[in-house]
Specification:
alpha/beta, six-stranded mixed sheet, three-stranded mixed sheet, globular
């Protein structure tokens, strides 16, 4: 009897400890939404504490599953809910750090929920709120799989989500039925838009290619002492109204964030010393508790503090802003500016609709040429500002990012990419402070036959993301066999290598002959792998559209400031020759003129 009482007391303590950890984890998780989305130090310690509690909770339920099943009545959906929260933690930590390995950890926990069918009996609980949790889990898992380019799994998950939505709406006839139908339509439209060009196996099945930076795709560079800057902070802003989106990611944002990340590699776990898969294969069954948290989460043991943190980082830090208000945009831009270390550069990428000026004789290029439309959703409420289009005569549109708004940030090295139908107004930003400044601007117009395709994402961003895909797209090439793709990709690689050589040679000619062929800003940014890639892909875009018969107007080609040299780079015969060779290899030579020429 004494032994039985002792066992019951021990079981009671296990249940009490589980309840304590569960309640503590919920409190910490709910507190995450109150943390500032910008800055680094403000949220790191809180994330560390949250990870620590979830580590204990996950390990505890694994060690005491039998007791919790019998004495607490632990259900499989409750285990799934814990795993889902951990997956969310890793995903949000990826968003805050830009490290793709955390994305893989999120995938492992989400895959475990599906693999072990934790939510399989949710509909039998007769709780509509539980079914909503299941649907949200599916939506989050789809986002993670999209970012990891697991498109086959994405399609399977979408089919499962559709069935779950049907079951949910049939069983409960809920008020949010239309909302879930819109979510489903949104993700289907996004998947369709994302597949701009299909690369096919010999059996005609599509191959999913990654466009993150890897050692094989990093453009070569003959380094010089002037290449001093590295990209450290990034703002990716998506405000285009009519563009395919899913979960606050427009297609342009989706493509650009991958362009500015390195391909994740296999990582050695700091505790066990064993390799950790970046594909979730062996971990689909059940993520091990020892894998939480990997890579040193701030606030936990083994984390290397601020100074060394940047040395460990593979990717620059990113902020992703979907349709921000002007005040939100300025706060995040200021935060990125503040966080820049010595020798660091800030990149602002904006994909947005133009906000046009009616001033007939502009004198102030900072504010009288218009800019980019921002969201009115918060500023209009908080500041009592006029609704767009209703501002009084003589006043500027308040919900607009003007070139002049960026002047203060040119105190530090600044790299700007504007993808808009009003992009060229940003070419007049002055360099008051003598710091490196480069502005890449999209074409303001596209030929009529591409107008209807803008919903699928911007052509300019597609060139910066995958030059080969963009060239196929403007030549109406819908699919390419993999062996042919690889052969054509060699021409793209040749182009990038030659363009890199020409940029370096322009700089050497300037030093040796005293002729200013290329602005020093490009040279200073050129040592960074990501910025060099963007500059060279911009050159590819400019040369390609210059030679394409369909893009004849000057507003249908990109611009940059400072201007890149024409004769020595953009109109150099060797680059035009490679593009024409690539066109011949794709059997689309008829889309291009006979040689480099202007309007």
């Amino acid at each position: 009897m004494v032994k039985m009482a002792s066992t019951e007391e021990q079981d009671r303590k296990i249940v009490l400890e589980f309840c304590h950890l569960l309640e503590k984890s919920k409190q910490l998780f709910n507190g995450l939404r109150d943390l500032p989305q910008y800055g680094h130090r403000q949220w790191q310690a809180y994330f560390g504490r949250t990870f620590d509690v979830y580590t204990k909770l996950w390990k505890f339920q694994q060690q005491h599953r039998l007791v919790l099943d019998s004495k607490y009545g632990l259900k499989r959906w409750q285990i799934g809910e814990i795993a889902s929260k951990i997956g969310q933690l890793y995903y949000h930590y990826y968003l805050r750090t830009s490290e793709t390995n955390y994305l893989n950890e999120a995938y492992s926990f989400y895959a475990a929920i599906r693999g072990r069918a934790y939510y399989s009996r949710a509909i039998k609980e007769d709780r509509p709120d539980l079914m909503v949790k299941k649907l949200r889990y599916y939506a989050r898992f789809i986002v993670v799989c999209l970012l990891l380019k697991k498109m086959k799994l994405v399609r399977e998950l979408v089919m499962e989500l559709e069935r779950q939505i049907q079951e949910y709406t049939t069983t409960y006839e809920p008020e949010d039925q239309l909302e879930w139908s819109l979510v489903l339509d949104e993700i289907k439209g996004f998947i369709k838009a994302e597949a701009a060009v299909a690369v096919l196996h010999a059996d005609s099945n599509p191959i999913i290619l990654s466009h993150r930076l890897s050692p094989l795709t990093t453009p070569p560079c003959e380094r010089t002492p002037h290449m001093t800057l590295s990209l450290q902070e990034i703002l990716i802003v998506g405000s285009a109204c009519e563009q395919a989106k899913f979960s606050e990611l427009t297609m342009d944002m989706f493509r650009m964030l991958q362009t500015l990340e390195r391909e994740p590699t296999e990582t050695i776990h700091p505790l066990t010393g064993h390799p950790m898969s970046t594909h979730g294969g062996p971990h689909d069954a059940s993520p091990a508790a020892s894998r939480m948290p990997p890579y040193g989460v701030p606030g936990s043991k083994g984390y290397v503090e601020n100074g060394d943190r940047r040395g460990m980082r593979d990717n620059p830090h990113k902020y992703l802003l979907y349709k921000p208000s002007l005040s939100q945009l300025m706060v995040f831009l200021s935060s990125g500016f503040k966080e820049l270390p010595p020798g660091g550069a800030l990149l602002l990428y904006m994909s947005a609709d133009g906000c046009f000026s009616t001033t007939k004789h502009p004198q102030d290029y900072g504010y009288e040429l218009g800019g980019l439309a921002t969201s009115v959703k918060r500023d209009a409420v908080e500041g009592g500002l006029a609704v767009r289009g209703k501002s009084s005569a003589g006043y500027k549109e308040p919900h607009c990012l003007y070139p002049g708004d960026l002047y203060p940030y040119t105190r530090r090295p600044l790299f700007i990419i504007i993808d808009s139908d009003n992009s060229f107004v940003f070419q007049h930003i002055p360099r008051y402070f003598g710091q490196p400044l480069v502005i890449l601007m999209s074409p303001q117009d596209v030929p009529a036959n591409f107008q209807d395709m803008q919903h699928h994402g911007s052509l300019f961003t597609l060139f910066l993301h995958s030059p080969m895909t963009a060239l196929c797209y403007i030549c109406n090439v819908g699919d390419v066999p993999i062996h042919h793709w690889e052969r054509c990709q060699n021409y793209v690689d040749r182009f990038v290598t030659e363009a890199s050589r020409l940029v370096t040679r322009c700089r050497m000619d300037e030093i040796e002959q005293g002729i200013g062929y290329i602005d020093s800003s490009y040279v200073q940014f050129f040592g960074d792998d990501f910025l060099r890639t963007l500059i060279l892909r911009f050159v590819f875009c400019d040369v390609t559209l210059r030679l394409h018969r369909g893009f004849r107007g000057r507003h249908q080609r990109p611009r940059c400031e400072p201007p890149l040299p024409a004769a020595e780079l953009l109109e150099h015969p060797s680059l035009g020759h490679i593009i024409l060779q690539l066109a011949s290899a794709l059997d689309v030579r008829g889309h291009f003129v006979e040689g480099p020429e202007g309007d």
